[in-house]
Amino acid sequence: MAITSIINQKGGVAKTTTTINLASSWAKQGKKILLIDLDPQASATHAIFGSADFETTIYDILLNNTTADKAVIHSEEFGFDVIPSEIMLSGVDIQLAAHFGRERILKKALEGVKRKYDKILIDCSPSLGLLTVNALLASKDIIIPICPEYFSLKGIGLILETLKNLKTGLGHKIDISGIVITRYRNRRVVNNVIKSVKVEFGLRVFKNYIPDNISVEEAHHKHLPVTEYAPKSSGAKAYRLLSNEVWS
Among 15, 25, 36, 99, which is 20 to 30 Å from 208 by CA? Predict the structure, then answer.
């Protein structure tokens, strides 16, 4: 079992989309997957379950000492388990600040459930605060989705600096599984950014790019993975190929 965080502090990079579609593709291959929504916006939770409310969420695990297994909900449509999020999570950084061992609360909470799964994916908050630090300290590696534009390079630099600080300050080394290119269009500026990621940072860029495809967004509104909503679309094909590449 491995825990992987999907992280980017910049919004609009298809972070949540990538998380839920990777999880769904792996689940369809017979793998046991848990998705943790650690984003106060609860985008993954809403994409999977719509407007449903949950008695127990990730907030209760972090602040109320609730065991992780009590928050797990199964999605039949997506085929994997979920620990949902909620809006109360938006103030959790301040609330966690007074807790001893505040950086490792999530890691400790997952000890009781992680052996049940082949993979745990954490959809991180679009920030580098305590929520994301909890995700990183619980994780073996990370995946960074980016839209191939100039400002993405600066964002990668900030993430790498955070990983360096965690290793130096807390002794936790995190591997970078790779960069996922999302909303891809075959333009010169796009390809120049991808080249810069490889050369400047020396990071792996997954070969299967996710195209700018409307079916991917429409699938969210139907509360389905894109491979179910539009299985022949370019987005569905790309996520199927990406899931195989990431897992290998």
Answer: 36
Cα–Cα nearest to 146, from 114, 190, 111: 190
Q: How many CB atoms lie within 10 A of CB 195?
A: 12
- In which element (H, E) is residue 176 found? strand 175-181
**Bridge partners, 122 (sequence order):** 5, 36
CA neighbor of 208 nearest in space, from 170, 247, 174: 247
Taking all residues of the chain, what is their mean pLDDT, rounded to a whole number? Answer: 91
Confirm if 72 and 113 have CB atoms less than 8 A apart.
yes
What pTM was computed for the model? 0.94
Domain ranges within the chain, ordered by starting residue: 2-247
CATH class of this structure's domain 2-247:
alpha beta
The residue assigned the tokens 């992680």 is 114
What pLDDT sits at residue 69?
94
Provide the residue type at 147 as one letter: C
Give one DSSP letter per residue of 61-92, joined into a string: HHHS---GGGG-EEETTTTEEEE---GGGGGH
Residues 6+ apart with CB under 8 A from 56: 66, 70, 71
Give the other-Cβ count within 10 Å of 50's Cβ.
Answer: 10
Which one-letter DSSP state was computed for residue 175? Answer: E
pLDDT digits (tens, 9 = 90+) for 141-198: 999 999 877 777 778 888 999 999 999 888 899 999 999 999 888 777 778 888 888 8
> For the chain, how are helix, strand and coil distributed in percent, rounded to 5?
50, 15, 35
